[in-house]
Amino acid sequence: MLHQIEFLIEGYLLPSTIGRLKISETLIFEQVWGNGRENPIAALAYVGVDTPVEANPFPIARDYLDFFLLIYCLESGQAVTETMGIGTDLDEIASLGTKRAGFPSFGRINVLGEYRDGPLSKPILEAKERFLLLLPNKQEIMESPLGLSLTYYYYAVRASKRTLEEAVIHLMIAAEALLITRNEKIQCNLSRRLSVLIAENEVERAEISKKMLELYGLRSAIVHGGGKKPSLSDVLVLFDYVRRATEKGISLRQFSKKELVAKLR
């Protein structure tokens, strides 16, 4: 049975050059603005789900959308959030997004069409390309350490709007999920493996390893109390390291965690 599940997306997703963007046959984004322009620009997500009559389509739709939003966060550095709305039946998947069932207070913005090439459109379009590439392996990715790394990178971006300390903790969890196995010393192994994974040359490798040792010490001080507050520059460096490591993890996703760790000796 075909369903349309609608979500309200809060946060920067579609640039002003994009009013409506079809990501796949079963995912469409539409830019909207609250009536009276009292609400900020948001977006609606229309997710198409085909399920047996007795199955609940809502969690399936959320999982599908969440996977895209994790990829978008990695590409853009923006962690948008969604509010689940209402579901309605569809006669055919081609009618997805042609009729809205929920969020009546948000009106569509008439803009330039699906997209215009430019720097503002680049993150969402690159996220679309990568999402479609990774979609056949979605379940495998999300059930693996790579899925945890993507998730905690997203958490870190969200947390950075509150406190830098939270961002550091989430980023280290993302890195550990990708590169640390059980019952081993974390700080030295994490610093060494991450530097091997992302460095372009031996000089950069030494610099990254040294900096990661320092940053992990900062993380430990935060968790155990009594440490200095992280600087914005340090957090930005850690974001860059973990993003690059996660990107590498995606490109090497054919390897298990054990195999990946073995390659980073």
Q: What is the straight-line distance between the termini? A: 50 Å
User: How would a crystallographer describe the biggest sheet?
Assistant: 6 strands, antiparallel
Assign the structural class, choosing from mainly alpha, mainly beta, alpha/beta, alpha+beta, or little secondary structure. alpha+beta
Count the E strands.
Answer: 6
H/E element order: EEEEHEEHHHHHHHH
- Helicity level: 40-55%
Kindly estimate the percentage of residues that lie in beta strands according to DSSP: 15-25%
Shape: elongated
Count of DSSP-assigned helices: 9
Radius of gyration: 20 Å
Low-confidence stretches: none
Number of domains: 2
Please, what is the average pLDDT? 90
Description:
It is a single chain. Strands 1, 2, 3, 4, 5 and 6 form a six-stranded antiparallel sheet that branches. The chain is 50% helix and 16% strand. The longest helix is centred in the last third of the chain and has 23 residues, at 202-224. It has nine helices and six strands. The protein folds into two domains: 2-136, no CATH class; 144-263, no CATH class. It is elongated. The protein has helices spanning 57-76, 122-134, 138-142, 145-159, 164-179, 186-198, 202-224, 232-251, 257-263; strands spanning 2-10, 20-24, 27-34, 42-50, 81-89, 106-108. It is an alpha+beta fold. It starts with a strand and ends with a helix. Helix 5 (164-179) packs across helix 7 (202-224).
